[in-house]
């Protein structure tokens, strides 16, 4: 969700280290990871939250779960050939109603399957508001990017070991329920660990969630995306324990190509799980063709303009709520009209839809 200065030497070192060291026994082999990836058509899609939800809790709580909007908006994605969505869960929605939460996950997955779209679920997240709360979620702040997005489990909750047993029960129950579900592409265990100044405080929970996932041993691969290269210990752990290498990059094409070339040192399939920030020169026009040519999964931030306000730049609010001259993220308006017709034409072309 947020970007940072990249230390390319650190990234290169991690790649070399990954080749040279033996891994936890249950980690997928390079051969298995590549065989899995080769069995899929080129993966592309978006980080998805329905336009009627300001955050993960509003998406998943019973009172505000909105299958009609989900169905309509995934239809927009299907229409341009997208075949995967990255979707954030939230432990508090599970805590509030475990069985109902899993039933809503199943409903989402069935809607997604009907649109020929696989799902990449995200468990934990270190980005934005530190204090998630069950119940009615706040209204968006006009013109403010992700004004209501919430961390999971929060700060200091994410590094308080007393919370770990409850989080373990959540992760294992959800993953065991869907461990052989072919509607799920991949489990993304932790979004941007160490963000919001947490740094290595996140490392204990990151290690735990990988351990919990390995105990369940799902049929789907597991990963946690690389995103900030001066978090050396976190990066090394993520790189050395992910079955598929996932990463974020919101920079222009020259920088993105450097990242790709260095990540190739792992010898594993690559999926970019966040990119496309127009005002930073990360665009569909200059990044997506590179990812297609390199056979790297391409998941951009945002599908439909909505309550998350991700058409606005990070930390650059427009207090009167006017639409920015150039959208930061997102592809469609709520009625399905593309923000830019040339962009959806390109996506369709890369997907063989025209």
Structural summary, described in words:
An eight-stranded parallel sheet has the order 5-4-3-2-1-8-7-6. The chain is built from twelve helices and eight strands. Helix 10 links the parallel strand 6 and strand 7 (270-274). The chain has one domain (8-350): Glycosidases (TIM Barrel). It has 354 residues and is an alpha/beta fold. 37% of the residues lie in helices and 12% in strands. The two termini are 31 Å apart. Keywords: Glycosidase, Hydrolase. Belongs to the glycosyl hydrolase 5 (cellulase A) family. Residues 77-302 form the Glycoside hydrolase family domain. This is Glycoside hydrolase family 5 domain-containing protein. One of its GO terms (molecular function) is hydrolase activity, hydrolyzing O-glycosyl compounds.
